[in-house]
Specification:
With 261 residues, this protein is an alpha/beta fold. It is built from eight helices and twelve strands. It has a single domain, classed as TIM Barrel (Alpha-Beta Barrel). Helix 1 packs across helix 5, helix 2 packs parallel to helix 7 and helix 6 runs parallel beside helix 7. It is globular, with a radius of gyration of 18 Å.
């Protein structure tokens, strides 16, 4: 990406961060950690998904149905049977557009049609299953895209690093990479910081294999971060579960205000 493209991307992101906010408040002293997977390679489910399930935990998988059955630098992508297995095992399936498009390069109506097409493709495999949450492919976000998707999805996840703290913008969820090229200590420090601030820490990666891509990690790396998350005492939830917890608190707060008025 050249300098002009980087500046344009930064500008889009900063504007999107400030506008069309869907604010909710985190429950004090009840930190959350979520593990999410983008695209997604089969190894993300077969390896990382199994590691989560063995511990009674679940992850969120952001899928572009146009990638189903294909191969990429991340390895073999998921199959229709993998989607059925994912849902049966209690993991969450979420939206990543149909064609893994770069959102700043398409009009709002094209983006909405891409998401609609993805939902139709999911319905063809899983029936009435609903994609409740969204992740911007490559983390490319604009204010118009964020605004257009606000009424369609409960949340939109970015790749902006950091912890989601009060107030949490469900239209701009921060997330942090789990890549083997990064020291595991950085993720473990985030876990410790999340406990102190009582926030919502979201991780994301792609393939989880012995020879991961540049945007993936090894099973040992993933396992080390998962162990740190477990021992931290935070609630490990899917994105859907995390959103539901925050929205439930917002509803209770609203009801209390109505009673007092």
């Amino acid at each position: 990406m050249n300098l002009v493209s980087r500046l344009e991307s930064y500008s889009h992101k900063r504007i999107a961060q400030m506008l069309s906010r869907k604010l909710v408040r985190q429950v004090p002293n009840l930190p959350i950690i979520s593990f999410t997977f983008d695209d997604f390679p089969r190894s993300a489910l077969k390896v990382a998904g199994a590691m989560l399930a063995e511990r009674g935990l679940r992850g969120t998988y952001y899928a572009s149905l146009g990638l189903m059955g294909k191969h990429s630098d991340q390895g073999e992508m998921y199959s229709a049977e993998d989607l059925r297995s994912l849902v049966e095992d209690g993991h969450e399936l979420a939206c990543h557009t149909f064609s893994h498009i770069y959102c700043p390069r398409v009009a709002v109506n094209e983006l909405q049609e891409e998401c609609c097409r993805n939902r139709r493709a999911v319905a063809a495999v899983l029936g009435a299953y609903r994609l409740r949450n969204f992740s911007f492919p490559s983390g490319a976000i604009t204010w118009s895209a964020k605004s257009a998707l606000a009424s369609i999805y409960d949340s939109c996840r970015t790749v902006e690093w950091g912890i989601n703290r009060n107030p949490v913008d469900l239209g701009f969820l921060r997330a942090n990479p789990l890549y083997s090229e990064l020291p595991a200590s950085y993720a473990q420090q985030l876990i410790a910081e999340n406990i102190k601030c009582g926030g919502w820490l979201i991780f994301y990666t792609h393939d989880v294999s012995l020879r991961p891509s540049a945007v993936g990690c090894t099973p040992n790396y993933f396992g080390a971060i998962l162990s740190s998350a477990l021992t931290s005492g935070a609630s490990i939830l899917t994105i859907e579960e995390g959103v539901s917890k925050l929205q439930a608190r917002a509803m209770r707060t609203k009801e209390m205000r109505i009673r007092r008025s």
